[in-house]
Amino acid sequence: MSAFKKSREAAGYLFMVLITFALLQSAVVVMHEFTHSTVAWLFGDMSSPFAIVWGNPLMMTGWDEGVAYSHLFPSGHNPVEAIIGASPLVVHTLIVTLGILLLQKKRIIRHKRQFHVLFWFVIANFMELIAYIVMRPFATGGDTGHFNRGLGLSPWILFVFGTLLIMVGLYAIFKRILPQMYDLFAQGNRFTEWMIFFLTSFFLFLWGSGIRVVFYIYPDPQWMFGLIGFVAFGIVLIGFNPSKYDPNV
C-alpha cells in the first residue's frame, strides 16, 4: 500500500475519532454534573437533579453541579459532602474498570463499532479521573476538595493511592488495549497506529488534564500539577509508542 493511501486511511479514521470523541466527551461532562446533582437531590440537598449550570460541553468550561456546598456543609467533616463531591469520580472509575475488562473480551473485539465506541468512552472517562485525582488532589474546592474536606482526609491519601490505581489502568490501556486497537483499525498501517496512539495520549494527559489545569487554574500555584500531564505524555511517547508494538508477540 502506498504512503498516500495509508495517510488517507489514517485521516479517515482520525475524522471518525474526533466526531465520536466530541459526542462522548459531551455525554461524559453532562453525566458528571448530573451525578452530583442527582446524589445531592437523593440526600435532600437539592430541589431537583436538573438544577445544574450548563456550560460548554466541548471545552468543558462553565459547568457546575449547582450544589451549594458552602451553605449546606459550612464546617466540613460531613460524609454527605464527600459522597456528593466524589460520586462522579466513582462513576468514572466503574466505567473505566468495566470498560477495560470488556475491551479484552472476544465478544467485544469481534464487533469493531462497539469496540471503537467503548474504547473512546473509556478514554473520555479516564481523562476525568486523571484530571481530578492526579492533578487536583490538593484543591480546596471541586470534587476532590469536597471529598477530602467531607471525610477530613489528607489530600496525600487520595493523591498517592489514586495515582497508583490510575497507573495500573494506564498500563492496561497502553499494553493490552491499544495493541488490539492497532489490529482492528490500523491493520499494519503505521500512520493509523501513530494517530490512535497520539490521540489516546493527548486526550488522557493533555486535553482533559495537563493543558486544562495549567491554563484554567493559573495563577493558583496548583497549576504546576498540570505539568504532570506533559511529563506523562513524554513518558508514554518514549516507552509505549507503536514502534514498540510487535504484532507477532
Q: What's the mean pLDDT score?
A: 88
- Run of helices and strands: HHHHHHHHH
Task: Based on Cα principal axes, name the global outline.
Answer: elongated
Strand content: under 5%
Radius of gyration: 19 Å
Distance between the first and last residues' Cα: 23 Å
Task: Tell me how many strands there are.
Answer: 0
Q: Number of domains in the coordinates?
A: 1
State the helicity in percent bands.
over 70%
- Number of separate helices: 9
The poorly predicted ranges are none
Q: Biggest β-sheet, characterized?
A: none
Structural class: mainly alpha
Report on this model:
Keywords: Membrane, Transmembrane, Transmembrane helix. By secondary structure, the protein is mostly helical. The protein has one domain (3-244). The chain is 71% helix and 0% strand. It is built from 9 helices and no strands. It has helices at 3-42, 69-72, 79-102, 106-109, 112-134, 142-151, 155-186, 190-217, 227-239. Helix 1 packs antiparallel against helix 3 and helix 3 packs across helix 6. The longest helix has 40 residues, at 3-42. It is elongated, with a radius of gyration of 19 Å.
What is the structure about, briefly put?
Keywords: Membrane, Transmembrane, Transmembrane helix. This protein has nine helices and no strands. With 249 residues, it is mostly helical.
